[in-house]
Amino acid sequence: MNRLHTHPPAKMFQSPTDSSASGDEPTNRWASKKATTSQFIIFAGAIFGFSLARLPYLNISGSAKSSYANSAEPGEWYWYSKGIYRIAITIHLAAILPAGLLMVWQFIPAIRYRFLLFHRINGYLVSTLVLIANVGALVGARRAFGGSLSTQAGVGVLAILSTVSIALAYYNIKRLQIDQHRAWMLRTMFYLGTIITMRIIMILAALIASKTSFYSTTMTCGELLSILKTNDKVNPFYPSCGEPGATANTLTIVQAKFGTQPEQIASALRISFGMALWMALFLHATGVEIYLGLTPREKNRLRQVSYERQLERGFNHPGSAGLTNDRWGDAEAWQPRKELTEK
Fold it and tell me: Model confidence at 343, in pLDDT bands (50, 70, 90)?
């Protein structure tokens, strides 16, 4: 977002082991470049493809089969079709889907070098969209796949993690601490990618849970009516909804079974959603730290670039003007290299 680099990259994708230090073996550098490129294609491609596939959801209440109203989990539209929850889902989808499409371009080195203005503007836009989307997600979490406490807590933690990561990335780039800016933006991207892994885990867990008759959840009679459309289809299977005094808010038990009955499919997905969210969040939070730990050369290269930029701007503690562990922790004081990695 600030003046980060002045020389064009030699490669389209930056390898984690890129360095001008002597002694690098060409074979290892080539293998590392291939690995980094493959990782980018997999993870960035997944986010871009998922967001692109969900763009029809922006037709929130449309009659098309691809609209959110007709594609969401059975029973979801009952809550999200009105009131504050309609506003929440609209805000969330209208912000997070464009953010997913724009986010991947931030991690292509050629764009950062050759189109720096685009990188800056796009970075601010993506960050703003994610923050707006988080507001919608937090408001709508009460009705997301049943809105259990585990689901609400998971959505809240994901919103906090992504918001804090964006804030720290912003602070570090303002302090020209490029290595830490990279780390926190990578964390943001990985955290947001949780939604894709979560859906895979959720479906697998729902299929497994359906093999037994031990799992069930509750739904209101209003939800069941919105799924099955008529009372003639609701009352024979859920007689409590047909009893005198029953209302749209009357609760009834629905078996979790990923079969042919849409309300049972919804039940199976609901019991799996919270667990899948927490498991996916754990996997992504762990995975990004492993990746950062496996790319120390890129971190050190950007630390040197940060030192140059901070020294040029007259910052105190050049090389450590941002949030670094030698200033805020007990790490040894960082020392710049005499030989610059960028020539």
Answer: very low
Residues 6+ apart with CB under 8 A from 106: 112, 119, 122, 123, 126, 185
Phi/psi of residue 141, nearest 5 degrees: -60, -30
Return d(Cα 40, Cα 43) in angstroms, integer.
Answer: 5
On the question of pLDDT at 230 being above 50, the answer is: yes
C-alpha span between 192 and 137 (Å, rounded): 12
Segment 115-138, tens digit of pLDDT: 989 999 999 999 999 999 999 999
**Distance (Å) of CA 263 to CA 8, 225, 239, 270:** 56, 10, 15, 10
Shortest CA distance to 163 belongs to which of 191, 197, 121, 198? 191
First to last CA, the chain: 21
- What mean pLDDT do residues 315-332 have? 90
47-89 per-position pLDDT tens digit? 999 999 999 999 999 999 999 999 999 999 999 999 999 999 9
Q: Which two tokens stand for residue 84?
A: 């504050």
- Calculate the CA 184 to chain-centre distance: 13
Q: Which one-letter amino acid corresponds to residue 32?
A: S
Q: In angstroms, rounded to a whole number, what is the distance separating the alpha carbons of residues 266 and 258?
A: 8
Q: Which long-range contacts (CB under 8 A, 24 or more apart) does 277-281 make?
A: 277/150, 277/151, 277/154, 277/155, 277/158, 277/194, 277/198, 277/202, 278/150, 278/154, 279/198, 279/201, 280/194, 280/195, 280/197, 280/198, 280/201, 281/154, 281/157, 281/158, 281/161, 281/191, 281/194, 281/198
How far apart (Å, rounded) are the C-alpha atoms in residues 324 and 337? 17
DSSP tag of 332? P
pLDDT value of residue 18:
43
In b/e form, how buried is each residue of 164-179, taking b as 16+ CB within 10 angstroms? ebbebbbebbebbbbb
The pLDDT of residue 260 is 87
Q: Which one is predicted more confidently, 74 or 19? A: 74
Please, which pLDDT band fits residue 4 given cuts at 50, 70 and 90? Answer: very low
Q: Among candidates 272, 268, 262, which has minimal Cα distance to 75?
A: 262
Residue 266, Cβ density class (10 Å: 0-12 exposed, 13-18 middle, ≥19 buried): buried
